[in-house]
Amino acid sequence: MDKKTTLGLIRDSQQILSTFYGDLAQPSVKKVGIALETTVEFCTSILLPVKYQSEKWKLNFQKKLNDYKDNLEKISEEKIIEVNPQIGAPILEKLSYITNEEISIMFINLLTKASSIDTVNIAHPSFVQIIERLSVDEAKILNNLDNKDFIPYVNFRLKQNNLKGYIEILGKGTLLQFENDLLFPQNINTYIDNLISTGILSDKDGTYKVDEQIYVPLLEKYDYEGMKSKFQSKFTEFKELQISKSYFEITSFGKSFLIACSQK
């Protein structure tokens, strides 16, 4: 393939789409072409060898394109706009090699939001970098945070007799690792720390929700009464099992991110 032909391939979204779709006249395929026309020009590094990629690569990338195409079918053609390459180019790059479903869906949903005149305002470029920083488990957690404003947590601390200090036996315990099918539930605190560092969550340590019923499921799951009885009856060096309650708040930025990367 000579340089002229190569550049033509890259700069013509219709030619690229023809690699994956036989009939470019399909309304849904046409929408993909309209939305990605400019973005394709900035994707030479990933789309240059599109005709020479392995079948496995093509099938993986085509599945992502199909998912994106299906999303665009729900948007009328007059509302389809060209995606800002600042968002579109890095997303296409990631979709060319990512195989995990949870992460892919977030990228595709963000790309969809950037493709409509009605939702382009919520597709912030920084969201691309945030998705890049997420593990599979963190993506699962976020996908289940729809319609939530906060995540309650509890701390259990053993107060020692005649000493001012205490021993923490449960730090910021939530229900997240029980509510989500995580690959590594033991890493839940690391996941939460990362979500805080991205600005999606905020730790409201020192404050708590007045409604005590919010914390009942946590006390039951972590067996507060059973644990208290155990330490009071078997370990005389401890005075009491103290409990403190607080919550992680989903920030305004975090809510915007969840909306932009969800199916809504």
What does this structure look like?
- 30% of the residues are buried.
- The protein has helices spanning 3-10, 13-20, 27-41, 44-47, 55-72, 85-95, 101-113, 126-132, 136-143, 176-179, 188-197, 216-221, 224-234, 252-260; strands spanning 150-160, 166-173, 201-203, 238-250.
- The chain has 2 domains: 3-132, no CATH class; 143-255, no CATH class.
- Helices cover 50% and strands 13% of the residues.
- Strands 2-1-4-3 form a 4-stranded antiparallel sheet.
- Strand 1 (150-160) and strand 2 (166-173) form a beta hairpin.
- Helix 5 (55-72) crosses helix 7 and helix 7 packs antiparallel against helix 8 (126-132).
- Residues 1-11 have low confidence and may be disordered.
- It is α+β, with helices and mostly antiparallel strands and 264 residues long.
- The radius of gyration is 24 Å and the shape is elongated.
- It has 14 helices and 4 strands.
- The longest helix is centred in the N-terminal third of the chain and has 18 residues, at 55-72.
List keywords for this structure.
264 residues, alpha+beta, 2 domains, four-stranded antiparallel β-sheet, disordered N terminus
Number of strands: 4
**How far apart, in Å, are the first and last alpha carbons?**
43 Å
Rg calculated over all Cα atoms? 24 Å
Number of domains: 2
Mean pLDDT over the full residue set: 85
Shape: elongated
Beta-strand content estimate: 5-15%
